[in-house]
Structures are given as C-alpha cells and as structure tokens.
Amino acid sequence: MNFVLALFQIWKDLEFEVKTVDTAYPWLPPASVIASIAVAVALVAFLVKARRNYLSLPEVEAVDGASVESVTAIVPARNEERSIERCVKSLAGYRVVVVDDQSEDRTAERARAAGAEVIAAPKLLKGQLGKSNACLAGSKLADTTYILFADADTWFDARFVPSLVKYSSDNEFILVSPFLKQHCVSLFEKIVMPYAFGLSFTAVNAANVQNFLDPETLANGQCMLFLRQPYEFIGGHNTVMNSVVEDVALAAKVKRHRMKLQIVRAERLGHARSLDAEGLRRISQASKSRWQTMAASLLLTSVAPLAIWLAVDRQYWMIGVLAVLVPLLFSGWYGNPFQAILSLPAIYLYQLAAIKALLASMSGRKSAWKGRKV
C-alpha cells in the first residue's frame, strides 16, 4: 500500500512540474510533441542510413552473351519438392548437383526430373549442421573454375550466371555474394520481412564489409559464387560445420586470408523466397554496430505509446505525422508507400518474434527447421 501511495505522489509531483513548465514557457509545444519530434528525427537518421547502406552495395550489370568459365552449381535441399524444379531449370546449361539432405518428400525425384545430378548428404555428426554438411559434399564433386552455392528456393534469369562470373573475373574476387529479389509468400512474410530486412541494414557499413582489411563481415547464404581453388584452400564448408551463420563465417575466413570479396545486389537477375528470421539475424549480427538495429527497433516500438500520449494531449496532427513517416521510411523495402503501411503492424509482430527467439535462446530450446531441430 505504501508503495502505491509513493508512486501516486511521484506522479502528482511530475504533473505539477509539467504544469509549472507550461506556465513559465507557454510558447513550448507539449512534452508529447517534443518527444515525438525527437523520435521522428532519430528514425529518419537510422532508416535513411539503412536504405543508403543497402543501395551502396554495387549492382551486378546484366551481360548478354558473355563467355562463361566453367561453373558447378551446388544446391543443398531438404524437403524442397515445391521449389527445387524451378531452381534447377533456371540453371539450365550448367552442371547442377542437388544434395538431398534427408528429405522426407519428393525433393530428389523432382530434382532428377528437372535435370540435376542428385546425391545424398552424408550422415550428420554431432554438432554439425545440415546445410554446411550438404554444401561440403557437393563441393567435393566440383572440378570447375567456379562453384555456385544456391538455396533450393532461389531461381535465376538466364543472364545471371554469366553476369556474376564476368563481374567476379573482371575484378578478381574470390567470393561474390548477391542479395536477390526477395519474394514474400505468406501473409506474415509480407508484413514482417520487408520491415525486418530494412531494419537489419541499420547495422551494416557498406564500405567496411567490402574491405578485406576490415573485420566487419556480411554475406547472403542464399547465393554465393566462389572461385573453387581459393574456396578449397581456406577449407570451405568443412571449417564452418557447426555455425548457424555459415555464410558470414565463410566470408570472414576469406577476409582473414586477405582475399578479395564483394557483396552485391542482383535483384534484376535473381530471385529468392524471402529471407527467414535466421537469415535476417545474420545480417544484423554481421556488424559491430548492431546496437543501431536494437536502438532503431526500440524507437519504432515507442510509436504506439507516443500516439496514445499525443491523443491524451489532443495533438492529433502529430499522430498523423508519425503514421505517415514510418511507412514513408519503409517504402523502399516494401516496394511502394501504400504497401509500406504494413510496416506499422510489423513493428509489433517483429518484437513478438524477437521475444520468442530470445526466450528460446535463454531456455536452450532448439528451433525446428524443415522438420529438424537446429
């Protein structure tokens, strides 16, 4: 009871202080408006920078009729019967090896029908993760100049491989990892994934991730083109078998060996099922500045409480400013300002997903991925 009375007295004291300030400085806007303006300015700073970070990644130029050095495509696949044919057929003209990671559906059958070689992934040893295990098995069959690692839910324009290989060869890159056009399928993905993707790039320094002398690292495991011999020299996927962020770990190894790599955009040449929560976590964890992602997320979460405070103060115009500003800042990630209205519910759905992941991590509970605990 004493505790409740103490809280009530603190509230009355604060209320008195606010009234005193309002009387002494009548020209000042309400505190709710001042707080909202501060949050709005901070959001503009974070989210404009995030979009600039992404657009600062060079875009691969489409090349028609380019000569292509030999390429082997390795596709790790587990329970991908719905997407594997599209992926394999989009790589027609190249050797495609699908590594069937103990699928429980018709992944292997459909991959063969589409023209791929299919091998079974070796049995997982304790501590190993399926994707790296499958990629390593496939890479052992490659004797070509380049190895393209591509997820089963990716698909490509006919110019994709020639363009990426030419880009890599002209610039002598050991690794080129492109971000592809992300396609959201479920309603949850359409609401949350563009928001999360944009938010994650607040932590990326585009210049640092490209500089092989800087430890900051980024890669997109959905698609990675390696020069084969350097890949084998650094140990390939064998050295990242227990990493849930194997793509970033491989990029880090390339950097540690002072080899050149490049993270690029190829939305016009390649497509992928939207990055899942794990993929987005890789982006935000890649940077030493990931605190910026957390700060931006907290600021966005404050929008609803601020709206309630503004409503109490009858500052409806400022509520309108916030309601327009957030979708505007995310319009580039959603495609247009109208679809970006989904960023408003995404703020809190994203937080619920983050809390769920945090609780699972704290409890040591593994998450399910394609029927397997990881």
Protein architecture, described:
This protein is an alpha/beta fold and 374 residues long. The protein has a domain at 71-186 and 205-285: Alpha-Beta Complex (Spore Coat Polysaccharide Biosynthesis Protein SpsA, Chain A). It has helices at residues 2-24, 31-55, 84-90, 107-113, 130-139, 160-171, 187-200, 206-210, 228-233, 246-256, 277-285, 291-301, 303-312, 316-334, 343-363; strands at 71-77, 95-100, 117-120, 146-150, 154-156, 175-179, 181-183, 223-227, 261-265, 270-273, 368-369, 372-373. Helix 7 runs parallel beside helix 11 (277-285) and helix 7 crosses helix 15 (343-363). It is elongated, with a radius of gyration of 24 Å.
Name some characteristics of this structure.
single chain, 374 residues, alpha/beta, Spore Coat Polysaccharide Biosynthesis Protein SpsA, Chain A, 7-stranded mixed β-sheet, 3-stranded mixed β-sheet, 12 strands, 51% helix, elongated
Can you give the mean pLDDT?
86
CATH superfamily annotation of the domain at 71-186 and 205-285: Spore Coat Polysaccharide Biosynthesis Protein SpsA, Chain A
Reported CATH architecture of the domain at 71-186 and 205-285: Alpha-Beta Complex
Strand composition percent: 5-15%
Helical run tally = 15
Count of extended strands: 12
Order of helices and strands: HHEHEHEHEEHEEHHEHHEEHHHHHEE
Global geometry: elongated
Find the structural class using helix and strand composition.
Answer: alpha/beta
Radius of gyration: 24 Å
Query: Which runs of at least 5 residues are low in confidence (pLDDT < 50)?
Result: none
According to CATH, the fold-level topology of the domain at 71-186 and 205-285 is Spore Coat Polysaccharide Biosynthesis Protein SpsA, Chain A
Spatial strand arrangement across the major sheet: 3-2-1-4-8-6-9
